TrEMBL record:
Name of the featured protein: Acetyl-CoA C-acetyltransferase
Highest taxon in the source lineage: Bacteria
EC number: 2.3.1.9
InterPro entries: Thiolase, Thiolase-like, Thiolase_C, Thiolase_CS, Thiolase_N
Matches recorded under Gene3D superfamilies: 3.40.47.10
This protein's UniProt keywords: Acyltransferase, Transferase
Length: 381
Protein backbone atom coordinates (compact mmCIF):
# COMPACT_ATOMS: atom_id res chain seq x y z
CA UNK A 1 0.00 0.00 0.00
CA UNK A 2 1.24 3.51 -0.81
CA UNK A 3 2.42 5.70 2.04
CA UNK A 4 2.45 9.46 2.53
CA UNK A 5 5.25 10.85 4.66
CA UNK A 6 5.79 14.19 6.35
CA UNK A 7 9.36 15.18 5.56
CA UNK A 8 9.26 18.79 6.70
CA UNK A 9 7.14 21.18 8.75
CA UNK A 10 7.78 24.80 9.63
CA UNK A 11 5.80 27.79 10.80
CA UNK A 12 6.15 31.45 11.54
CA UNK A 13 5.74 32.73 15.05
CA UNK A 14 2.08 33.53 15.68
CA UNK A 15 1.75 37.29 15.93
CA UNK A 16 -0.78 39.25 17.96
CA UNK A 17 -3.28 41.57 16.33
CA UNK A 18 -1.36 44.77 15.55
CA UNK A 19 1.79 42.98 16.70
CA UNK A 20 5.12 42.25 15.04
CA UNK A 21 3.68 40.53 11.94
CA UNK A 22 0.77 42.92 11.39
CA UNK A 23 2.58 44.96 8.73
CA UNK A 24 3.78 41.94 6.72
CA UNK A 25 1.75 41.42 3.56
CA UNK A 26 0.03 38.00 3.81
CA UNK A 27 1.55 36.88 0.52
CA UNK A 28 5.01 37.68 1.88
CA UNK A 29 4.18 35.95 5.16
CA UNK A 30 3.27 32.76 3.32
CA UNK A 31 6.24 33.10 0.97
CA UNK A 32 8.60 33.28 3.94
CA UNK A 33 7.28 29.97 5.26
CA UNK A 34 7.40 28.24 1.88
CA UNK A 35 11.01 29.32 1.35
CA UNK A 36 11.94 28.11 4.83
CA UNK A 37 10.32 24.73 4.16
CA UNK A 38 12.29 24.26 0.94
CA UNK A 39 15.53 25.40 2.55
CA UNK A 40 15.15 23.16 5.60
CA UNK A 41 14.22 20.01 3.67
CA UNK A 42 16.78 20.61 0.93
CA UNK A 43 14.34 19.36 -1.69
CA UNK A 44 14.51 20.50 -5.30
CA UNK A 45 11.62 22.99 -5.46
CA UNK A 46 11.06 22.17 -9.14
CA UNK A 47 10.00 18.67 -8.04
CA UNK A 48 7.10 20.05 -5.96
CA UNK A 49 3.94 19.44 -7.97
CA UNK A 50 1.41 21.53 -6.09
CA UNK A 51 1.03 23.99 -3.23
CA UNK A 52 -2.30 23.60 -1.46
CA UNK A 53 -2.86 26.52 0.88
CA UNK A 54 -5.63 27.21 3.35
CA UNK A 55 -6.88 30.76 3.74
CA UNK A 56 -10.28 31.72 5.11
CA UNK A 57 -10.68 35.40 4.25
CA UNK A 58 -9.82 35.23 0.54
CA UNK A 59 -10.45 38.93 0.15
CA UNK A 60 -8.27 41.91 -0.74
CA UNK A 61 -4.59 41.10 -0.14
CA UNK A 62 -5.48 37.44 0.45
CA UNK A 63 -7.40 37.00 -2.82
CA UNK A 64 -6.25 35.98 -6.32
CA UNK A 65 -5.03 32.49 -5.28
CA UNK A 66 -2.55 33.40 -2.58
CA UNK A 67 -1.00 29.91 -2.76
CA UNK A 68 0.32 30.53 -6.24
CA UNK A 69 1.34 34.11 -5.53
CA UNK A 70 3.19 33.18 -2.33
CA UNK A 71 5.17 30.46 -4.10
CA UNK A 72 6.21 32.90 -6.83
CA UNK A 73 6.95 35.61 -4.26
CA UNK A 74 9.33 33.18 -2.55
CA UNK A 75 11.36 33.07 -5.77
CA UNK A 76 10.45 29.44 -6.40
CA UNK A 77 9.96 27.78 -9.82
CA UNK A 78 7.11 28.93 -12.02
CA UNK A 79 6.44 25.29 -12.96
CA UNK A 80 4.82 24.51 -9.59
CA UNK A 81 1.07 25.11 -9.41
CA UNK A 82 -0.83 26.45 -6.40
CA UNK A 83 -4.41 26.36 -5.17
CA UNK A 84 -6.12 28.10 -2.25
CA UNK A 85 -8.85 26.32 -0.30
CA UNK A 86 -11.40 27.22 2.37
CA UNK A 87 -12.72 24.78 4.92
CA UNK A 88 -13.01 27.60 7.42
CA UNK A 89 -10.74 27.18 10.45
CA UNK A 90 -9.67 23.74 9.21
CA UNK A 91 -8.49 25.01 5.83
CA UNK A 92 -4.81 24.13 6.14
CA UNK A 93 -5.53 20.87 7.94
CA UNK A 94 -7.64 20.04 4.90
CA UNK A 95 -4.65 21.08 2.79
CA UNK A 96 -2.64 18.36 4.58
CA UNK A 97 -5.42 15.88 3.79
CA UNK A 98 -5.55 16.81 0.11
CA UNK A 99 -1.75 16.67 -0.17
CA UNK A 100 -1.62 13.27 1.53
CA UNK A 101 -4.47 11.95 -0.61
CA UNK A 102 -2.68 13.07 -3.78
CA UNK A 103 0.40 11.14 -2.70
CA UNK A 104 -1.57 8.10 -1.46
CA UNK A 105 -3.41 7.95 -4.80
CA UNK A 106 -0.11 7.57 -6.64
CA UNK A 107 -0.77 10.60 -8.84
CA UNK A 108 1.65 12.92 -7.02
CA UNK A 109 4.98 12.54 -5.24
CA UNK A 110 5.75 15.88 -3.59
CA UNK A 111 3.06 18.28 -2.41
CA UNK A 112 3.19 21.25 -0.04
CA UNK A 113 0.29 21.73 2.36
CA UNK A 114 0.27 25.22 3.82
CA UNK A 115 -1.85 27.95 5.33
CA UNK A 116 -1.79 31.68 5.93
CA UNK A 117 -3.94 34.34 7.55
CA UNK A 118 -3.22 37.93 8.43
CA UNK A 119 -6.17 38.89 10.60
CA UNK A 120 -4.58 42.29 11.23
CA UNK A 121 -4.70 43.13 7.52
CA UNK A 122 -7.83 41.22 6.46
CA UNK A 123 -10.21 41.17 9.44
CA UNK A 124 -12.38 38.16 10.18
CA UNK A 125 -15.67 38.57 8.30
CA UNK A 126 -14.27 41.06 5.78
CA UNK A 127 -15.83 39.30 2.80
CA UNK A 128 -19.18 38.94 4.56
CA UNK A 129 -19.20 42.63 5.47
CA UNK A 130 -18.50 43.59 1.86
CA UNK A 131 -21.44 41.48 0.67
CA UNK A 132 -23.81 42.87 3.28
CA UNK A 133 -22.88 46.41 2.28
CA UNK A 134 -24.15 45.58 -1.22
CA UNK A 135 -27.45 44.34 0.19
CA UNK A 136 -26.78 40.65 -0.48
CA UNK A 137 -28.39 38.08 1.88
CA UNK A 138 -25.03 36.55 2.75
CA UNK A 139 -24.04 33.93 3.71
CA UNK A 140 -27.40 32.18 4.20
CA UNK A 141 -30.29 32.32 1.78
CA UNK A 142 -33.97 31.36 1.87
CA UNK A 143 -33.41 27.61 1.55
CA UNK A 144 -31.13 27.60 4.60
CA UNK A 145 -33.83 29.46 6.51
CA UNK A 146 -36.40 26.86 5.49
CA UNK A 147 -34.23 24.10 6.96
CA UNK A 148 -32.79 25.73 10.09
CA UNK A 149 -35.13 28.63 10.71
CA UNK A 150 -34.35 32.29 11.17
CA UNK A 151 -31.96 31.99 14.08
CA UNK A 152 -28.49 33.25 14.93
CA UNK A 153 -25.74 31.11 13.42
CA UNK A 154 -22.38 32.08 14.89
CA UNK A 155 -19.35 30.58 16.57
CA UNK A 156 -20.09 32.66 19.67
CA UNK A 157 -23.58 31.23 20.04
CA UNK A 158 -22.21 27.76 19.34
CA UNK A 159 -19.69 28.13 22.15
CA UNK A 160 -22.43 29.18 24.58
CA UNK A 161 -24.64 26.28 23.47
CA UNK A 162 -21.77 23.89 24.16
CA UNK A 163 -21.37 25.30 27.68
CA UNK A 164 -25.05 24.65 28.31
CA UNK A 165 -25.07 21.15 26.84
CA UNK A 166 -21.98 19.97 28.71
CA UNK A 167 -22.66 21.91 31.89
CA UNK A 168 -19.42 23.88 31.70
CA UNK A 169 -19.10 26.78 34.14
CA UNK A 170 -17.29 30.03 33.54
CA UNK A 171 -14.79 29.02 36.24
CA UNK A 172 -14.00 25.76 34.42
CA UNK A 173 -13.44 27.66 31.19
CA UNK A 174 -11.13 30.16 32.86
CA UNK A 175 -9.11 27.48 34.64
CA UNK A 176 -8.57 25.79 31.28
CA UNK A 177 -7.56 29.11 29.70
CA UNK A 178 -5.12 29.85 32.51
CA UNK A 179 -3.45 26.46 32.03
CA UNK A 180 -3.19 27.10 28.29
CA UNK A 181 -1.23 30.29 28.99
CA UNK A 182 0.93 28.57 31.58
CA UNK A 183 1.77 25.69 29.28
CA UNK A 184 2.51 28.01 26.38
CA UNK A 185 4.70 30.31 28.48
CA UNK A 186 6.68 27.29 29.70
CA UNK A 187 7.12 26.01 26.15
CA UNK A 188 8.39 29.39 24.95
CA UNK A 189 10.73 29.78 27.93
CA UNK A 190 12.15 26.27 27.43
CA UNK A 191 12.62 26.74 23.69
CA UNK A 192 10.26 23.94 22.67
CA UNK A 193 9.13 25.88 19.60
CA UNK A 194 12.50 27.20 18.50
CA UNK A 195 13.31 24.54 15.89
CA UNK A 196 9.90 24.74 14.25
CA UNK A 197 9.77 28.52 13.85
CA UNK A 198 11.16 30.57 10.98
CA UNK A 199 11.46 34.11 12.44
CA UNK A 200 9.80 36.92 10.49
CA UNK A 201 10.22 40.68 10.66
CA UNK A 202 12.41 40.37 13.75
CA UNK A 203 9.78 38.29 15.58
CA UNK A 204 11.23 35.03 16.91
CA UNK A 205 8.63 33.81 19.41
CA UNK A 206 4.85 33.54 19.58
CA UNK A 207 3.46 36.82 20.86
CA UNK A 208 0.23 35.60 22.45
CA UNK A 209 1.10 33.88 25.75
CA UNK A 210 0.48 35.93 28.90
CA UNK A 211 2.53 34.35 31.70
CA UNK A 212 1.28 36.95 34.18
CA UNK A 213 -2.46 36.38 33.66
CA UNK A 214 -4.54 35.15 36.60
CA UNK A 215 -8.00 33.84 37.32
CA UNK A 216 -8.73 37.14 39.10
CA UNK A 217 -7.93 39.12 35.95
CA UNK A 218 -10.07 36.83 33.83
CA UNK A 219 -13.00 37.13 36.23
CA UNK A 220 -13.08 40.90 35.66
CA UNK A 221 -13.88 40.57 31.94
CA UNK A 222 -17.36 40.97 30.54
CA UNK A 223 -18.94 38.01 28.79
CA UNK A 224 -19.25 38.27 25.01
CA UNK A 225 -22.99 37.74 25.32
CA UNK A 226 -25.29 39.00 28.05
CA UNK A 227 -25.79 36.26 30.66
CA UNK A 228 -23.19 34.15 28.82
CA UNK A 229 -20.08 32.34 30.02
CA UNK A 230 -17.59 33.00 27.21
CA UNK A 231 -15.21 35.95 27.50
CA UNK A 232 -12.23 37.10 25.46
CA UNK A 233 -10.04 35.20 27.93
CA UNK A 234 -11.65 31.87 27.06
CA UNK A 235 -11.63 32.49 23.30
CA UNK A 236 -8.85 32.12 20.74
CA UNK A 237 -6.80 35.21 19.96
CA UNK A 238 -6.97 37.18 16.71
CA UNK A 239 -3.61 36.50 15.12
CA UNK A 240 -1.30 36.52 12.10
CA UNK A 241 0.78 33.58 10.91
CA UNK A 242 1.65 30.93 8.38
CA UNK A 243 2.70 27.28 8.33
CA UNK A 244 3.80 24.73 5.74
CA UNK A 245 4.22 20.95 5.59
CA UNK A 246 5.92 18.89 2.87
CA UNK A 247 4.26 15.56 2.05
CA UNK A 248 6.26 12.98 0.07
CA UNK A 249 5.75 9.56 -1.47
CA UNK A 250 8.12 6.64 -0.96
CA UNK A 251 9.50 7.26 -4.44
CA UNK A 252 10.16 10.93 -3.69
CA UNK A 253 11.89 9.99 -0.44
CA UNK A 254 14.25 7.67 -2.36
CA UNK A 255 14.88 9.93 -5.33
CA UNK A 256 15.47 13.11 -3.31
CA UNK A 257 17.26 11.60 -0.33
CA UNK A 258 14.61 12.84 2.09
CA UNK A 259 14.14 11.69 5.67
CA UNK A 260 10.57 10.67 6.61
CA UNK A 261 9.68 12.13 9.99
CA UNK A 262 6.12 10.84 10.28
CA UNK A 263 3.64 8.76 8.36
CA UNK A 264 0.07 9.81 7.67
CA UNK A 265 -1.75 7.07 9.58
CA UNK A 266 -5.42 8.06 9.28
CA UNK A 267 -7.56 10.82 7.79
CA UNK A 268 -11.17 11.48 8.70
CA UNK A 269 -13.75 14.16 8.07
CA UNK A 270 -17.22 14.63 9.49
CA UNK A 271 -20.04 17.12 9.79
CA UNK A 272 -22.30 17.81 12.76
CA UNK A 273 -25.00 20.29 13.78
CA UNK A 274 -24.20 23.63 12.04
CA UNK A 275 -26.07 25.58 14.71
CA UNK A 276 -23.85 24.21 17.47
CA UNK A 277 -21.10 24.55 14.85
CA UNK A 278 -18.16 23.58 17.13
CA UNK A 279 -19.02 20.00 18.16
CA UNK A 280 -17.87 18.00 15.12
CA UNK A 281 -14.39 17.12 16.51
CA UNK A 282 -16.11 14.69 18.89
CA UNK A 283 -17.79 12.38 16.32
CA UNK A 284 -14.96 12.93 13.83
CA UNK A 285 -12.37 11.72 16.34
CA UNK A 286 -14.45 8.65 17.13
CA UNK A 287 -14.69 7.95 13.40
CA UNK A 288 -10.92 8.33 12.89
CA UNK A 289 -10.03 6.10 15.83
CA UNK A 290 -12.53 3.47 14.72
CA UNK A 291 -11.16 3.47 11.16
CA UNK A 292 -7.62 3.14 12.53
CA UNK A 293 -8.54 0.42 15.04
CA UNK A 294 -7.19 2.59 17.84
CA UNK A 295 -8.37 3.94 21.18
CA UNK A 296 -7.77 7.40 22.58
CA UNK A 297 -5.22 5.85 24.97
CA UNK A 298 -3.04 4.98 21.97
CA UNK A 299 -2.57 8.68 21.22
CA UNK A 300 0.51 10.25 22.82
CA UNK A 301 -0.10 13.88 21.85
CA UNK A 302 -3.30 15.68 20.85
CA UNK A 303 -3.57 19.09 19.21
CA UNK A 304 -7.18 20.28 19.25
CA UNK A 305 -7.77 23.88 18.33
CA UNK A 306 -8.87 26.03 21.25
CA UNK A 307 -11.31 28.13 19.25
CA UNK A 308 -13.17 28.46 22.56
CA UNK A 309 -12.48 26.66 25.84
CA UNK A 310 -15.66 24.51 25.68
CA UNK A 311 -14.44 22.83 22.48
CA UNK A 312 -11.48 20.93 24.01
CA UNK A 313 -13.22 20.57 27.39
CA UNK A 314 -16.26 18.84 25.88
CA UNK A 315 -13.99 16.77 23.62
CA UNK A 316 -11.93 15.58 26.61
CA UNK A 317 -15.09 14.63 28.50
CA UNK A 318 -16.62 12.73 25.59
CA UNK A 319 -13.45 10.93 24.49
CA UNK A 320 -12.12 10.22 27.97
CA UNK A 321 -8.77 11.67 26.97
CA UNK A 322 -5.92 12.36 29.39
CA UNK A 323 -5.86 16.18 29.74
CA UNK A 324 -2.07 16.08 30.15
CA UNK A 325 -1.73 14.83 26.56
CA UNK A 326 -4.05 17.46 25.11
CA UNK A 327 -2.38 20.68 23.91
CA UNK A 328 0.63 20.04 26.16
CA UNK A 329 2.26 23.31 25.09
CA UNK A 330 -0.87 25.43 25.18
CA UNK A 331 -3.34 26.17 22.43
CA UNK A 332 -5.02 28.99 20.55
CA UNK A 333 -6.31 30.68 23.70
CA UNK A 334 -2.69 31.45 24.53
CA UNK A 335 -0.90 31.09 21.21
CA UNK A 336 -3.47 32.52 18.82
CA UNK A 337 -5.58 31.27 15.91
CA UNK A 338 -4.70 32.74 12.52
CA UNK A 339 -7.70 31.03 10.89
CA UNK A 340 -6.47 29.47 7.62
CA UNK A 341 -2.95 28.94 8.94
CA UNK A 342 -3.85 27.12 12.15
CA UNK A 343 -4.13 23.63 10.66
CA UNK A 344 -0.58 23.69 9.29
CA UNK A 345 0.70 25.34 12.46
CA UNK A 346 -0.89 22.68 14.68
CA UNK A 347 0.54 19.90 12.50
CA UNK A 348 3.98 21.47 12.81
CA UNK A 349 3.61 21.66 16.59
CA UNK A 350 2.30 18.10 16.77
CA UNK A 351 5.18 16.64 14.78
CA UNK A 352 7.83 18.48 16.78
CA UNK A 353 6.27 17.56 20.12
CA UNK A 354 6.22 13.87 19.19
CA UNK A 355 9.89 14.15 18.25
CA UNK A 356 10.76 16.04 21.43
CA UNK A 357 9.04 13.57 23.73
CA UNK A 358 9.56 10.34 21.79
CA UNK A 359 5.82 9.74 21.39
CA UNK A 360 4.56 7.52 18.59
CA UNK A 361 1.06 8.63 17.63
CA UNK A 362 -0.32 12.14 17.38
CA UNK A 363 -3.87 13.30 16.65
CA UNK A 364 -4.95 16.69 15.35
CA UNK A 365 -8.51 17.99 15.13
CA UNK A 366 -10.38 21.27 15.05
CA UNK A 367 -13.87 22.67 14.80
CA UNK A 368 -14.79 24.39 11.56
CA UNK A 369 -17.52 26.67 10.27
CA UNK A 370 -20.64 24.89 9.11
CA UNK A 371 -20.30 22.29 11.88
CA UNK A 372 -17.38 20.32 10.41
CA UNK A 373 -14.12 18.77 11.62
CA UNK A 374 -10.99 17.19 10.22
CA UNK A 375 -9.01 14.57 12.13
CA UNK A 376 -5.47 13.58 11.22
CA UNK A 377 -3.54 10.80 12.95
CA UNK A 378 0.20 10.64 12.32
CA UNK A 379 2.84 8.14 13.39
CA UNK A 380 6.30 9.43 14.23
CA UNK A 381 9.10 7.53 12.50
Amino acid sequence: MAEAYIVGAVRTPVGKKKGGLSTVHPTDLAAHTLKALIDRTGVDPAAVEDVIMGCVMQFGPQSMDIARNAWLSAGLPETTAGVTIDRQCGSSQQAVHFAAQGVLSGTQDLVVAAGVESMSIVPMGASITAALEKGMPFPFGDLWGERYGKQEISQFRGAELMCQKWGLTREELERFALESHQRAAKAVANGYFRDQIAPVNGVEDDEGPRPDTTLEKMAELKTLKEDGRITAATSSQISDGSGAVLIASERAVREHGLTPRARIHQLALMGDDPVYMLTAPIPATRKALDKAGMSIDDIDVVEINEAFAPVPLAWIKELGADPARVNPNGGAIALGHPLGATGAILMTKLLHELERTGGRYGLQTMCEGGGQANVTVIERL
